């Protein structure tokens, strides 16, 4: 999806450029200072948007963890905190359940916890807690 968004924004920049637009469509584009300046400013904003999607798009992917304990119920609220060198506490709302994994929304990001044989008695859209290690 990230590549699709970047491609769409890049296409919007190229279509919006006066020289490219006049070349592709054959239309005459007047080169008034204000119009060209506004167009270039919008183009720069679109390029910045493409760069932000490419740069920070990776952080939108969920974190993958392996459960070290059974998933349990907890008080509402998200938390994704390191307990020690290889153990993390993941607390959040259950947004997806599968036989071998559960996806928790910790507020700031989604965490996919592979159950690895551990139980998950917590239902969909309920707060859950699990100790896990990175995949």
Question: How much of the residues is beta strand, in percent?
Answer: 25-35%
- Mean pLDDT across the residues is 81
Tally the helices.
3
Oligomer: single chain
Shape: elongated
> What kind of sheet is the major sheet?
5 strands, mixed, barrel
Instruction: Give me the side-by-side strand order of the main sheet.
Output: 1-6-5-4-7
The tally of domains stands at 2
How many runs of DSSP E, i.e. beta strands?
7
Distance between the termini: 23 Å
Level of helix content? 25-40%
Query: Uncertain spans, ≥5 residues at pLDDT below 50?
Result: none
- Based on secondary structure, the structural category is alpha+beta
Radius of gyration: 23 Å
Order of helices and strands: HHHEEEEEEE
Protein name: NfeD-like C-terminal domain-containing protein
Transmembrane segments: 32-54
Keywords: Membrane, Transmembrane, Transmembrane helix
Note down, in words, how this protein is organized.
With 135 residues, this protein is α+β, with helices and mostly antiparallel strands. It folds into 2 domains: 2-59; 62-134, no CATH class. Helices cover 35% and strands 30% of the residues. Strands 1-6-5-4-7 form a 5-stranded mixed barrel. The two termini are 23 Å apart.
Brief descriptors of the model:
alpha+beta; 2 domains; elongated
Strand and helix map with partners:
Elements: H1 2-16, H2 18-25, H3 33-56, E1 63-67, E2 72-73, E3 79-82, E4 88-98, E5 101-105, E6 110-114, E7 127-134
Parallel strand pairs: 1-6
Antiparallel strand pairs: 1-7, 2-7, 3-4, 4-5, 4-7, 5-6
């Amino acid at each position: 999806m990230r590549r699709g968004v970047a491609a769409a924004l890049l296409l919007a920049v190229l279509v919006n450029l006066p020289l490219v637009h006049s070349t592709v469509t054959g239309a005459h584009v007047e080169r008034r200072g204000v119009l060209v300046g506004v167009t270039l400013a919008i183009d720069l904003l679109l390029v910045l948007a493409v760069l932000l999607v490419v740069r920070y798009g990776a952080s939108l992917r969920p974190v993958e963890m392996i459960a070290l304990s059974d998933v349990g119920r907890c008080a509402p609220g998200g938390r994704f905190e390191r307990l020690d060198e290889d153990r993390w506490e993941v607390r959040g709302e259950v947004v997806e359940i599968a036989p071998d994994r559960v996806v928790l929304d910790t507020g700031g990001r989604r965490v996919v916890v592979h159950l690895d044989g551990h139980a998950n008695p917590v239902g969909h859209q309920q707060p859950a807690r699990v100790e896990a290690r990175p995949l």
